[in-house]
Structure formats: C-alpha cells, structure tokens
Amino acid sequence: MNVTTQHYIQDPPITDLSPRLATVSVLAVAVHHFIFRKGEWHLQAPHIFAIWALSAPILFVAETLLSSSQSWRVLARNAVLTTSCFTIATLSSIAVYRLFFHRLSDFPGPALARVSKLWHTVQCQDSRNHLVLDKLHQQYGDFVRTGPNEITIFDPEGLQRLDGPGNKNTKSVFYDFLLPNVGVETIRDKAWHDERRRIWTKAFSTKTLPLYQQKMTDHAHNLVKIIGKYADEGKVVPFSSFAYWFSFDVMGLFALNKSFGMMHNGQWHEMITRLRGAIALLGPCSSVPWLGQIAFKFFKFHPTVQDWNIWSKWCQAQIEEQIQKNDESTCISSYLIAESIEKGTVEQDKPLLTGEAITAIIAGSDTVALTTIFLFYELASHPEHLERLRQELSGIDVDDCRELEKLPHLNGVINETMRLHPALPTAGYRDSPEEGVTIAGRYIPGNTTLVAPRYTIFRSERCYEKPNDFVPERWYCQPELIKDNRSFLPFAQGRYTCIGKALALSELRTITTLLVSNFDFSFKEGDDGSSVVRDARDHFTTCPGPLELVFLRRE
C-alpha cells in the first residue's frame, strides 16, 4: 500500500515580525509625544476613530497587493498584529506619560482618572456627576485631578477666579457640543462672544423685558386655572410636568414667538420630549466631548442621537420660518435675524441663528422649570415658610413684577432653593490661560481644564452655617449664616453671566406668588417628596425627580 505524504507549509513565526513591531512601537510613541500632545483633538475624534477601525483592513489589502508569496492568513495576521501593536504602544505611552510625567501629576485624584476621562464617564453612567465629584472632594480635598488635563476646584475662590473680573480663562472644548451649530452660550472665542452678546442685549432691553413679562404673567394665570381644575376635581397634580410645560411654553414665545402649547393640550410636545431625551446624553458624556463627536458621526441610528438631530432640524425649520416672515415680533430670534439681515449675512448665519435658538430654549426653560420644582418641594417640606410668604404677600399686587422684586422672604426662598439645588451643579468648564492661574494659593499650569462644582461649594461648611438646611432668612435678616459671599454665583458672572437672569427671576417670583396666593398644597398621601432629590440627575442642568402635589383652593 502506497502512503502519500502530505507536506504543509507552515506560517512563518511571529518572531519574523519583530523588527516591524519594534519600528511601529517607536512610531506610536513618537506620534503621541510629537502630535497628539499638542492642540485639541476632540473634533478630529471621528476621523481618528475611522482611521483606527480601518487600519487593519487597509494594511491587509496593501500587503496583499505587494506580496504574492505569502498566504492571506499570514498577511491578515501581520496586519492585525501591526495595528494592535501600534494601538497598544500608543495607549501605553499615553498612560505612562499621564501617570508619571504630566505637569498635573502632583495633584491628587483617582489613578484611572489621570489616565482617561472614560473613567469619569463610567462613574457618571447614572448621571449623578454632582455626587461623584462631591465624594472625590471628601476623599482628596479642594483640588482634585479628575481627568488627564483637568482639575476640579472645590475652594469657593474657584468660582470667582474662573469667571470673575479680569480673568483670562476661556471656555473649554465641552462647548463645541452644538457644532456645526453654535450660539452665544457656546462660543469659545472671547471677541466673537462679546460681539454676539451685544446683539443679544437688544433682545433683553428695558423696552422688551416688560413685554416678555406680560406674556409670562398671562401664562402663569393660565397655569393657575389649570391647577384650579385639578383642585376642584380632587386630582393629584403632576407638578414636575406642569413646571416644564409652563417654562417651555413661555420660552417658546420668548425665543421663537411660538408657544409649544403643552399647557393648553395637557401633554408633552414631541420636540420637547426628544430634547429631554437627547439632553440625557450630556450626563455621562459631558466629561468626554470626543466621545460625543464619535457618537454623532457614526451612531446616528442611536435613539438619543436621533432625538437630538430631529430637535436641531426642527429648530432650524423655525428659524427658516422666522426669516421668511421677517416681521417685527418681539421675540429673541427676531432681533437676531434683523441684525443678520441688516449685515446681509443671513445665509451664512443660519447655523448661528439655529444654535442660538437651541441654547435660548434650553437655558431659559430647563433652569426655571427645575428651580420651580425644587422650590415647591422645599415649601411643601417647610410649610412655615409658606405662611411667611403669604404674610409678606398681603396687600401686594402679585402681577406687579417690580413690587415682587422688593419682597425679602420671597427672594430668600428663591436664593435658598438655587443654593441647595443649583441649576448647573457641575457645569462651567474653563481652560486656564497660557501663563497658568493661581487659585487659593495653588498654581495650576496653563491650558488646563478647570471646573468649580456649584453643588459642593454651595453646600460647603466653610461658606454657610447649616449648609444642608433650608434657611431663606440667611439672605436678608440672618447674614451671619453666610460665611463666604464669594460662594454663591447661580447665574455665573462677568462676560458669561446669564443674560436672561432678570427674566428668569421674574418668572420664579410670579409663578411662586400666584400659586402660593391661590392654593394650599402638600405632598400626596404616603409621599414625602424625597424622590425629587433622591432621583435627581445631572444632565448638565439638573433634572429633578418627579414631584406630585395635592392642591386645594384657598378660601
């Protein structure tokens, strides 16, 4: 019997690739040190991700075309090993540098946070960044390295130094999240920001504010009627929903001269539902802007990304409609569009006008709604302050916004609510100037991302007596309960101060006085309202847990 011997050609050993892998490793380290360490790369993240994902297939095709003597298995193995080696060498170089040689290595913080902000994303996957940072403060102190190039400052001086007079800080890469749209709140270039800010002041002049306030007051009276119907029928009021409906309806009028009609229809508008779904992405991803760029480029099928894109296109359509009308309505967009028409730059300004509509609606609606929810939670939890408010309102015309400005306990209740439950609990990322900055005696190198979390600073024992207690009197008759005046900046300050501050406070005063004057209210049976705080999320702005209240008409 003949035995046929079959010879197999063995693949060359991996050791044959050693020179190539060594060269690739050196190249990877060089790319990190001489390219990636310089400048900003978050906007290039989609391109880098695509190149990385396609590198092995491209290398395989190239080697196939250039080599006819090796099997496809060998070429595929070589391509995978080469790209893997480059990736591992790059990441290793990054990790070693950030852990041991980075200019921020003297600052304390979690080891993984020093290596990558992805650590922070994992920690914030349930969108409780305010609690994550508060815990880091307790563990590491006032200056914590919360990212490879990021310092979180818990000293109250931090808030002043980031935005106060004379500061040279700039907005960080986070504010590019709207691109290709952009708005006054997200513009990073100071000169351009100041130019747009001057245009915005026309929309918030002493002439326009009374008109906005009248529209807002009319909507507030409608809210009273709607809650009155619930009271007459003995229904529990879904107060969280009502607060958002009121705020977004009003801001729709202010920004686009078009109410969302949620109070009238008694249900959420589709676009606002999509917006709120999209904003949830900011909870875990706000600390890693490059991850958001990749998501919006390659994961457009994701429901959250779809929500944001549909919302953005809707806002763009509203701006197009406003441009076509070209009327003289007193809404924010009309002033901005008129400026572009006067300059002859309407077409090129459309991404800017769209971005400013988006930011106006979000900034003007979310902040008022969430503060209203927390305020009524605190009043329901502390009925003694409800009675003091009613005594203060005796004989006051609740529709007179100027009279309401003078009421100390009302303003104290609002301030105390904003202190305990800040609208922007951890937001406000800034980049230090080239020469660096010294805060509370600690020098921080230039081009470092800085943030001073309001949630922790507003509750600091160094700044307030009874920091976790609801004490409105600290703002007018018990000033000794405030130890450090620098610590309370709910609307920011300087060039980045909230341009709608006066209007927001007017809304809060009006809705509070109208509801307090017309109704008694309490938590529903068996509920203490604690879910409002317990289930709160940090989605850039705070998202309170649900609040349900029982309202009764006052005799």
TrEMBL record:
> Needs which cofactor?
heme
Q: Which residues cross the membrane?
A: 17-36, 48-67, 79-100
Q: What is this protein called?
A: Cytochrome P450
The root-end lineage is: Eukaryota, Fungi, Dikarya, Ascomycota, Pezizomycotina
Q: Keywords of this protein's UniProt record, alphabetized?
A: Heme, Iron, Membrane, Metal-binding, Monooxygenase, Oxidoreductase, Transmembrane, Transmembrane helix
Q: Which CDD domains match?
A: CYP67-like
Q: Which residues bind heme?
A: 498
Q: Which Gene3D superfamilies match?
A: Cytochrome P450
Output the Gene Ontology terms for molecular function: heme binding; iron ion binding; monooxygenase activity; oxidoreductase activity, acting on paired donors, with incorporation or reduction of molecular oxygen
A Pfam family recorded for this sequence:
p450
Report the family membership: Belongs to the cytochrome P450 family.
PANTHER family, sorted: CYTOCHROME P450, P450, PUTATIVE (EUROFUNG)-RELATED
Please indicate which superkingdom the organism of origin belongs to: Eukaryota
In which pathway is this protein known to take part?
Mycotoxin biosynthesis
- Where does the UniProt annotation place the signal sequence? none
